[in-house]
């Protein structure tokens, strides 16, 4: 069998990643998924997720070929059932046992058990996040090669627990630190083919934007002052025009409330997006795989457009458009993802990791995503 | 003969190959003489769409054969397009599968909805007692008792119910304003309720409501529902099942509450106790709930109890102009009952 030496300079003018899907192709998948999910009372959602990913991955090109999703609905369903069976005692306690203990006057003991359970669930959410990422990589193929990661994730769970808690201490100033640390820890244990991901994100440039979020309630109040003053002025004017008696106080109140609500949400969204845009750029820019470096180009404006687009799609379709949100998210992610460096096809050999079999069951149980 | 490319699963290198069907399956070959025959049984379709055909091989991980569009007919026909909904659905078709699943779900929901009410009378008292014992226990033994108070409570119960032997009405010293019907004919009145109730007739209305819950087996039905559809929805997870369960449980409790109110009115009429004071109690409750906004009637569909104002009107209408009502308890009995947990002045307001 002859072997062609192939290497790609991924730093071509166009991005190495391209998304070629269209919403017209996606719509039949999304709507049949919705139908089947409803008639099965939600059980089909695992198969729906597999179909959706199969499509999105198959329309995602990296250099010269598409990605391929090989995970199945059946394995995700099984993973979920196993996890639910393991979590059942805890869920039963919180649903029935706790009330029974409180009614017996053992409120302290019940509270203690509940606290232990909630901490345990929080720990498992960290493990779930890790395993979901590993599962997704292990079901993602490119050129017949798949990703993987260290099995387990139990140690990551502890890290997730204490770093998340530590982040909220010190007036929540350490949240950017815990977020980037946990991102690095997760990705440093992931791999594609023989190569390990290397992630070395730090908090430079994140702290300031995060402090803005923490200060946002005060900023909103400050921003309200001119709005309120203007409204009072306008109200007085309207009253004056109507000959001294308030012309339509009801309408005025509605306008005022609407203006304040819109302004508050607008400002909060703007500040929040500013941080998360910087965070996403930071963690992806500091991610490497072999000779490949990644970059993420979405700025705050792009994120805002994405969210406003989400709102428009959902509102404009009276809600049914929510089935397109996952499509919009994925296409946003891929359109702004870039890679540079070399891919040596010869040395990109099959992943030595055993493939994940838990199929993000833990993450499904907690209803969380991986990235 | 068609052009394709192959990834062998060992490295990411893309090999150009020619493919053609032969007796065994698919024959792959290269110009340098390399060839491989793959039996059809080992090949599966991973993608068959407008962009071409992608095949995987069950015995070699990562082995991928990509045939770009247009796929030659002699190859295309070997690999029928799958819908990819999932094995069962692909076999019988989307619409038939949706119909079948819908039917099964409807049966599950209908039995989750109706079975508790239908089966509740069949649950033996021993099981109900064990359930009550396990889930509710004894309130840490915080029951209140005094000879005169107990006697007053017994009298009130007997006025409302013709055969109160299987009812166990007690006052418990837990600081909530409420009363509750529990499994196995247990009814508890929380001591703090006495601070909000102005007259024995009001207490009679509330107690009658709880007795009606017991007599109509609402508690047993709720218990069955919780273990049936409730557990089912929890185990299934996801938002669809949760929402369905929420609506079922809501309509269930709303129906039960309305029935219990009706039962209470009937009981009060038989006992010749006026329902008007109970209406006054709901008026008070309404004040606590806050001003009735225009949204309130819409919210009634989302709350488990009927709106206080609707209940107020119902009890008010039930009060007959020229009926000769009597007081549910004598002042002396009422005083004793109010003081059953702690000394409390005869009247607060």
From TrEMBL, chain A:
Lineage of the organism: Bacteria, Pseudomonadati, Pseudomonadota, Alphaproteobacteria, Sphingomonadales
The protein's name: DUF898 domain-containing protein
Domain of life, source organism: Bacteria
Entry keyword annotation includes Transmembrane: yes
Signal peptide: none
Residue runs in coiled coils: none
UniProt keyword annotations, A-Z: Membrane, Transmembrane, Transmembrane helix
Xref: InterPro entries: DUF898
Transmembrane helix found in the keyword field: yes
Residues spanning the membrane: 26-47, 80-103, 109-130, 210-242, 254-278, 307-327
TrEMBL record, chain B:
Protease in keyword set: yes
All residue ranges annotated as the Peptidase M48 domain in the record: 155-314
Gene Ontology, cellular component aspect: membrane
Cofactor(s) required for function per UniProt: Zn(2+)
Cofactor note: Binds 1 zinc ion per subunit.
Signal peptide: none
Residue ranges of every copy of the DUF7092 domain listed in the record: 1-81
Domain of life the protein comes from: Bacteria
Alphabetical UniProt keywords: Hydrolase, Membrane, Metal-binding, Metalloprotease, Protease, Transmembrane, Transmembrane helix, Zinc
Database matches in InterPro entries: DUF7092, Mito/Outer_Membr_Metalloprot, Peptidase_M48
Transmembrane segments: 94-115
Protease among keywords: yes
One annotated GO biological process: proteolysis involved in protein catabolic process
GO molecular-function term, one example from the UniProt record: metal ion binding
Similarity remark: Belongs to the peptidase M48 family.
Protein name as it appears in the record: Peptidase M48 family protein
Organism: Sphingomonas changbaiensis NBRC 104936
């Amino acid at each position: 069998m002859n072997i062609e030496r192939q290497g790609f300079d991924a730093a071509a003018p166009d991005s190495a990643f391209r998304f070629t899907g269209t919403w017209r192709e996606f719509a039949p998948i999304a709507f049949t998924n919705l139908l089947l999910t409803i008639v099965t009372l939600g059980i089909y959602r695992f198969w729906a997720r597999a179909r959706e990913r199969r499509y999105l991955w198959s329309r995602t090109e990296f250099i010269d070929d598409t990605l391929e999703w090989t995970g199945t609905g059946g394995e995700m369903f099984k993973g979920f059932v196993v996890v639910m069976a393991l979590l059942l005692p805890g869920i039963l306690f919180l649903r029935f046992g706790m009330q029974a203990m409180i009614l017996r006057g053992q409120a302290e003991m019940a509270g203690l058990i509940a606290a232990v359970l909630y901490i345990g669930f929080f720990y498992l959410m960290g493990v779930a996040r890790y395993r979901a990422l590993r599962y997704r990589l292990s079901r993602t193929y490119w050129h017949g090669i798949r990703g993987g990661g260290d099995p387990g994730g139990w140690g990551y769970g502890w890290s997730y627990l204490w770093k998340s808690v530590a982040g909220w201490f010190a007036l929540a100033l350490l949240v950017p630190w815990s977020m980037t640390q946990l991102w690095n820890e997760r990705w440093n244990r992931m791999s594609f083919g023989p190569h390990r991901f290397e992630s070395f994100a730090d908090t430079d440039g994140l702290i300031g934007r995060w402090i803005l979020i923490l200060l946002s309630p005060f900023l909103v109040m400050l921003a309200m002052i001119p709005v309120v003053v203007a409204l009072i002025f306008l109200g007085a004017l309207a009253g004056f025009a109507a000959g001294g008696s308030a012309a339509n106080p009801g309408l005025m109140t509605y306008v005022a409330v609407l203006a304040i609500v819109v302004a508050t949400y607008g400002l909060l969204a703007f500040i929040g997006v500013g941080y998360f845009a910087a965070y996403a750029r930071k963690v992806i820019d500091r991610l490497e795989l072999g000779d490949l470096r990644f970059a993420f180009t979405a700025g705050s404006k792009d994120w805002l457009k994405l969210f406003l687009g989400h709102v428009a799609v959902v509102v404009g379709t009276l809600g049914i458009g929510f089935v397109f949100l996952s499509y919009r998210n994925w296409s946003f992610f891929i359109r702004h993802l870039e890679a540079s460096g070399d891919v040596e096809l010869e040395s990109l050999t099959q992943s030595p990791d055993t493939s994940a079999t838990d199929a993000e069951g833990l993450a499904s149980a907690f209803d969380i995503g991986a990235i | 003969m068609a052009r394709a490319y192959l990834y062998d699963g060992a490295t990411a290198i893309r090999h150009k190959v020619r493919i053609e069907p032969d007796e065994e399956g698919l024959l792959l070959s290269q110009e340098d003489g390399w060839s491989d025959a793959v039996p059809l049984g080992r090949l599966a379709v991973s993608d068959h769409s407008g962009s071409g055909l992608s095949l995987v091989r069950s015995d070699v991980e990562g082995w991928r054969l990509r045939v770009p569009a247009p796929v030659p007919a002699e190859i295309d026909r070997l690999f029928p397009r799958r819908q990819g909904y999932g094995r069962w659905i692909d076999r019988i078709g989307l619409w038939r599968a949706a119909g079948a699943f819908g039917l099964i779900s409807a049966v599950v929901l209908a039995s989750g909805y109706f079975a508790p009410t239908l089966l509740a009378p069949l649950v033996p008292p021993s099981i109900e007692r064990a359930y009550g014992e396990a889930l509710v226990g004894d309130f840490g033994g915080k029951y209140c008792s005094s000879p005169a108070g107990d006697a007053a409570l017994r009298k009130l119960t007997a006025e409302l119910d013709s055969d109160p032997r299987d009812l166990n009405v007690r006052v418990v010293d837990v600081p909530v304003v409420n009363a509750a019907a529990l499994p196995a004919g247990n009814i508890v009145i929380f001591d703090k309720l006495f601070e909000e109730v102005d007259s024995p007739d009001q207490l009679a209305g509330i107690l009658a409501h709880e007795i009606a819950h017991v007599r109509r087996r609402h508690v047993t039905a709720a218990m069955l529902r919780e273990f049936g559809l409730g557990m089912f929805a929890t185990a299934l997870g996801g938002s669809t099942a949760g929402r369905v369960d929420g609506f079922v449980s809501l309509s269930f409790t709303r129906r039960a509450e309305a029935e219990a109110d009706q039962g209470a009115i009937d009981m009060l009429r038989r006992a010749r106790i006026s329902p008007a004071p109970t209406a006054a109690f709901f008026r008070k409750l309404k004040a606590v709930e806050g001003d009735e906004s225009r949204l309130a009637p819409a919210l009634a569909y989302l709350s488990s109890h009927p709106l206080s104002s609707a209940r107020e009107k119902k009890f008010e209408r039930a009060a007959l102009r020229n009926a000769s009502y009597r007081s549910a308890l004598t002042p002396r009995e009422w005083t004793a009952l109010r003081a059953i947990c702690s000394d409390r002045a005869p009247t607060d307001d």
